[in-house]
Amino acid sequence: MFVEVQPNDPAATRRAAFIAVTPFRRVGLEPDAARVGAGFLEDVTLELARWPGIEVLAGRTSFALPEAELEPRRMHETYGVTHLVDGSLRAAPEGLQVGADLIEANSGRVLWSQRLQLPSRPSPAAQEDAAALLANQICARLNLGRLAQVRSRPVSSLEAYDCWLRGHERLRRATAEDDEAARELFERALSIDPTYARAYAGLSLSHFKRWNWRRATPQEEADDRLSLEYARRAEELDDLDPIVQLVLGRTHVYRRNFAQGRARLERALELSPNVADLLMQAAPLWAYLGEPERAAGMAAKAFRLNPLHDPWYPLTAAIPHFCARRLEAALELLERAPPNIVFEQHAVTAACLALLDRVAEARAHVPKFLEEFRVSINGGREPDPARAVRQLLDANPFCRDEDLALLVEGLGRVGLTAEPSAPTPASPAAEEARFVRSGGLWEAAYAGKSAHLPDMKGCRDLALLLAAPGERIHCMDLAGRAAEGDAGAAMDGRARAACQRRIRDLQEQMADAERDGDLARTERLGAELDALIEQLSAAMGLGGRGRKLDDPAEKARTAVTWRIRSAVKKIAEAHPALGRHLELSVRTGAFCAYTPERPVRWAT
């Protein structure tokens, strides 16, 4: 049974909207077109549910309600819905016309409308792309409307999500004053909801920016540490939030922890593969990781899904094209971007022009680069050009030496060279260590000391993690249970894809059964379809339901976390140095990992 969401519901303070997608009215549709329309509606529901901060009423609930129950104010009072997506599907000469209205539930006002055209038999990719486009536009409109409302309100009256929204806006202004204001907003969010993972992600971003852009400040060491600590804290609280995974991935990439950064970015894309802002923010990170073609594809998709994008899109999209040696395309994007978004903007523009043998034009950007460095990085002091270049090279974490060399070559053609840097210290040799089971005991040898421990399940978990440093292992795998097909919130990507394919098959079979008048078969298929949608809804977070304590994935998460922590505690008693190392290096949760701060080669 559903009840109205109360004002003090903690979940309500951390979301942009609670949306119900109502059954679209079907006007003059043939069975094939009706089948396409049903699949498209399901795709829209799923895409909305992937958006960070958006919650969606489970499709089986809204689809089962009689028309009278779908009146906006009634949906608001009964289920706590804040917005409805209402629409129609019509036959058109070109195929199928889709109309969608975004309605404010408590007032019934239409806030925004959109019309899309689908071919009569769209490919699955085209249908999913159209659904993602519609979801991006709906969610962008929701956030813009809410941001407009909260800008003028005092901080003391804001909810946690409002604080995140305003804080994120301040971070994009890229000034020291705005960064500080953003931190205050994120701290306010945590005072409202101490478990709000995204507020910790925001704090991480604010410290990351000061560390990466203003490394000469006295706070450098603290910002470096806090940016990672806050990002890790965010992941511990909610490892299913794609923004949290993106922030942690960015932090690792800029710290040159490329393997860990790659794993977090893959996870962010798995959770939200069609959110335009997330795709665009991830694109330069994949270019830094040495995959510029994949990065350029993400940027192109973000442009397609968000035609009315923010001004920072072109600048961000330029990095993948630069790394792919498409200098003309990179330059065109750089010239479309507003000036002075980031201090390196004019330097990269100069490098592109110089590499295209347009040296005179390139030289005009050198004083602009140095002026932006003076204002943004150097505290108003006159800059040393060599130091400015060194800062630029340090602030762009190219994984491939050839990408860094390309930027250095372009800058060198206009007289910008870095001061000689201290030789990079050789990476320390990996320390040899042992964690081996022998009989009924475990032998642990680390930092010149050995200890023997009783056999515990947590030791077996640790052995698996130590054997795969940097690899994220799902708690269900450690618990000895297959995750695929599980109805909990940690359903993996393959299981979700299989579930979605089966849903489409069932929709087609139901259409055939309805056409043939086979009511028994229609009812049987409908029951299976409802069960699958419920399963997928739980995995994707539809209806705003959190992970239930009786879900298999949540049981595994709790059990594995407890036994690993118990084992580490026992190890610390017998071998304090190893215990401390494991406390710092082992992460638990839905995914567990061993990420050592210094290289260790384990025999397990």
UniProtKB/TrEMBL annotation:
Keyword Coiled coil belongs to the record: yes
Protein's recorded name: Tetratricopeptide repeat protein
Keywords, in A-Z order: Coiled coil
Coiled-coil region(s): 496-523
Organism: Phenylobacterium terrae
